[in-house]
Specification:
The complex is a heterodimer of chains A (250) and B (126). With 250 residues, chain A is an alpha+beta fold. Chain A contains 9 helices and 7 strands; from the N terminus they run ββαβββββαααααααα. In chain A, strands 2-1-5-3-4 form a 5-stranded mixed sheet. In chain B, helix 1 packs across helix 3. Classes of the chains: A alpha+beta (250), B mainly alpha (126). At the A-B interface, helix 5, helix 8 and helix 9 of A face helix 1 and helix 3 of B.
Chain lengths: 250, 126
């Protein structure tokens, strides 16, 4: 423990279904090491002091998107939240807001998983090219057009940060709309019309009131808030065109 | 599956500075609406002659109206600053195939505001 500089407290939200009526706080003391993240601290607790503590994690390098939790009230990937930044503590660790809690820090993501395919996040073609015709080619500029929105790792931090999703769980939500934009901007895709039909509904883009928190907490700089506002412009343009032009010329 | 659902508190918007600013920004639209009505009433009074305009002036000089208008002005400033700041996010402007930087979009709005203000100032004071 050469690089340890004392210890720091963790206040962890615990919920054991069937035993607890609601979440309760439990305090742990962990070594305050410069290179340790909140996830390292949780693993330290689980491997020694308390093997019953439950949380999700996998890659511990900001790629898999499984270790999202509320750290001191802010949605964070715990593998990127360093203990030193929260000294002297204690650090409050809670499950992501706006989702039902299954146990301790594990949330139920069923709603998110059900919403993602609704925006049809795959390449839609009017007519598929045959394999003999070769691959769909794309220039670096065409790739740049959607690349930012393709960086989403489905960590759901944006849903935890979004007060609209908290108040109205029917809202499709930031990540799903950003993903729709990712495919709309893809030069190989022709499905913008189909996605707009889903997102033009009230629970689609119009549910968003541009709080902007989704963009602020996104660990991958996807900018879902930007994607949603651009979608609103598209939807508004579409409505004006539908009003002004006869069906055939749209 | 047994899960625990946490309820959103009525006071969620005072718990974080960014949430609070957002709610104040939304609230500012009420004051914008008030100032629009105020302006319409002013124009209507002007068109109805001197007596009507004097009645409007008496109303406008009332301390309660002055305080309310001062608060409204503060909210209009907040409204302008926050919406100007959000505009580059909503607009994806390309110039010769390159995205226009956020700072340029932001600055052009303030330039536009300054130009319109200068024209109105000139109209009123000439």
């Amino acid at each position: 423990m050469a690089d340890s500089t004392g210890s720091i407290g963790l206040r962890v939200s615990r919920y054991r279904p069937g035993v607890d009526d609601g979440p309760q706080w439990q305090e742990y003391d962990v070594p305050l090491r410069k290179e340790w993240t909140v996830l390292d601290a949780l693993n330290h607790v689980k491997n020694g002091e308390d093997p019953t503590l439950s949380f999700r994690w996998s890659c511990r390098m900001g790629i898999c998107g499984s270790c999202g939790m509320n750290v001191d009230g802010e949605p964070r990937l715990t593998c990127g939240a360093f203990l030193g930044d929260y000294a002297p503590g204690p650090i409050r660790v809670e499950p992501l807001s706006n989702f039902p809690v299954i146990r301790d820090l594990v949330i139920d993501m069923t709603d998110f998983m059900e919403k993602l395919p609704r925006v049809k996040p795959w390449i839609i073609r009017d007519e598929e090219m045959s394999i003999d015709e070769g691959e769909y080619l794309q220039t670096p500029e065409e790739l740049d057009a959607y690349k930012q929105f393709s960086m989403c790792i489905n960590c759901m931090l944006c849903y935890a940060a979004c007060p609209i999703y908290g108040l109205d769980p029917d809202f499709v939500g930031p990540a799903a709309i950003a993903l729709a934009e990712r495919y709309d901007l893809d030069s190989r895709d022709q499905g913008a019309r189909e996605r707009l039909d889903v997102l033009i509904e009230h629970e689609g883009v119009w549910g968003c009131t541009f709080v902007g928190e989704c963009t602020r907490v996104c660990p991958k700089h996807v900018d879902p808030a930007g994607a949603i506002q651009r979608y609103k412009l598209k939807a508004a343009k579409e409505s004006v065109m539908a009003f002004l032009l006869p069906r055939g010329s749209r | 599956m047994l899960t625990y659902r946490r309820l959103v508190s009525k006071w969620w918007w005072v718990r974080k500075r960014t949430y609070f600013v957002f709610v104040m920004r939304e609230l500012s639209s009420i004051f914008i609406a008030w100032l629009v009505v105020y302006l319409l009433v002013l124009v209507s009074a002007l068109s109805r002659g001197e007596a009507a305009y004097e009645t409007f002036q008496d109303f406008a000089e009332h301390p309660v109206v002055i305080v309310f208008n001062a608060v409204a002005l503060a909210f209009v400033v907040l409204h302008t600053i926050t919406w100007f700041a959000l505009t580059p996010k909503a607009m994806d402007i390309q110039l010769r195939g390159r995205p226009v930087p956020d700072s340029v979009v932001l600055a052009s709005q303030y330039v536009g505001l300054a130009v319109v203000s200068a024209i109105i100032f000139w109209l009123v004071t000439r």
